[in-house]
Amino acid sequence: MRMKGSVAIIGTGFVADLYMRGLQTFPGITVVAAHDIDADRLRAFCDHWKAPPAATLENIFAAKPDLILNLTNPHAHYAVSRACLEAGFPVWSEKPLATKLEDAEALHALAAERGLLLASAPCSLLGESAQAAWLALRRGLIGPPRLAYAELDDGFITQAPYQHWISESGAPWPAQDEFAVGCTLEHAGYYLTWLMAMFGPVRQVAAASAHTAGVPLADGSPAAPDFSVATLFFESGMVARLTCSIVARHDHGLRIFGDSGTLELGECWDNDAPVRIRRRLRIRRRLVELPFTKRFRIQGPTHPKTGKRGAASMNFALGPAELLAALAEGRKPVLDADFALHLTEVTLAIQEAGDQGSARPIRSRFAPVRPMPWAAA
What positions does the domain Gfo/Idh/MocA-like oxidoreductase N-terminal occupy (predicted)? Predict the structure, then answer.
């Protein structure tokens, strides 16, 4: 796979440093320009990473990158991605693709009309732990899977000292954006993308969401729900429960229950998180879940790792690198616009369910996702 090409970055805030750390693990990828509406932030970012600054979007376009990374404030994702697509550039968007379904659908239609690639974060599905879990399922190590429990509880974030969370180039953690957009739109995708790849499109979502802890916004506007829970019904027949919160004790566990055992994983924010198989046996008149597990590993080289940065040990550049490879090879990317739209539609269905709950059919669909070449066996 050819991991080469040039990228330009729009938005140089907190997450941009995580992308830059990942991009440094791909020597063949060059950052040709970076832009931010905050001149001081842009200067600090470019000084730290030795990236060429671009004062305007027009300067970004003039640099003629192979791919533009839209790393702006979530509420700007739609407008910035649209401008890039209209200028003729493929786009990798930080999550969410858009904060409104109609905007995500408009981007999807525009990309198709212009014949341009469009994809969105998260890309942890391309990481070793996700690919190992998927390979274990394909090998039948727990038998046919029947049910999954995925947890994305981040702890009581409003009580955390987040004012002191600073990125490598000096950007503060964007607390107000995080609270305004909400933990579901921000985080559900980390496991939802895995489940979508493993089990296919979601046909219906039964969900509820709530405000439980009085999340504060500086401008007095209402925050997004700080808790959500969803039951996902997949076209394949699989069923999964997905929980998100910034109140409950930290738990990023995944359990997939099959006829002969359970696949267990403790952290989706770590590309190296161990995948474990717990067998289930009948012993005389008892059904026993074994007290020990066996780790399942992918043999051979996988992908570049970045090490731990803050709460995450993820290479944020895996998605852009795979998109560049698809562009160079003239093929469909692993994470494409159909996948991004489906992810957005399902996530919004969960977040918007409210305290009355809702059961919403999902309209969008995507073609089967293929595993990474190093995890295809």
Answer: 7-118
Give the count of alpha carbons within 13 A of 328, CB side only.
15
Task: Verify that 244 and 204 share a domain, yes or no.
Answer: yes
What 3-state class would DSSP assign to 288?
strand
CATH number at residue 53: 3.40.50.720
Mean pLDDT of 357-368: 97
Q: What integer is the mean pLDDT of 124-136?
A: 98
pLDDT (average), residues 350-376: 97
Residue 96: pLDDT band (50, 70, 90) is very high
The domain boundary, picked from 97, 120, 143, lies at 120
> Do 52 and 33 form a contact (C-beta atoms < 8 A)?
yes
| Whole-number Å distance between alpha carbons of 341 and 279 | 36
d(CA 211, CA 228): 9
Number of compact structural domains in the chain? 2
pLDDT attached to residue 307: 78
In Å, the largest CA–CA distance within the chain is 73
Nearest Cα to Cα of residue 368 among 334, 337, 344, 343: 334
What's the burial of 27, exposed, middle or buried (CB within 10 Å: 0-12/13-18/19+)? exposed
Residue 172's Cβ-count burial label (10 Å; 0-12, 13-18, 19+) is: middle
Q: How far apart are CA 253 and CA 244, in angstroms?
A: 11
pLDDT tens per residue across span 62-87 = 999 999 999 999 999 999 999 999 99
Say how many C-beta atoms besides its own lie within 10 A of residue 5's C-beta: 20
Average pLDDT over residues 317-344: 97
Among residues 120, 155, 170, the one where a domain terminates is 120
Q: How many helices (H) and strands (E) does the chain have?
A: 11, 15
- Domain range for 203: 128-300+337-375
Category of 103 on φ-ψ map: left (φ > 0), alpha (ψ -120 to 50) or beta: alpha
Give the CA count within 13 Å in the CB-facing half-sphere of 98: 20
Q: With bands split at pLDDT 50, 70 and 90, how would you rate the model's confidence at 186?
A: very high
Residue 6 near residue 29 (C-beta atoms within 8 A): yes
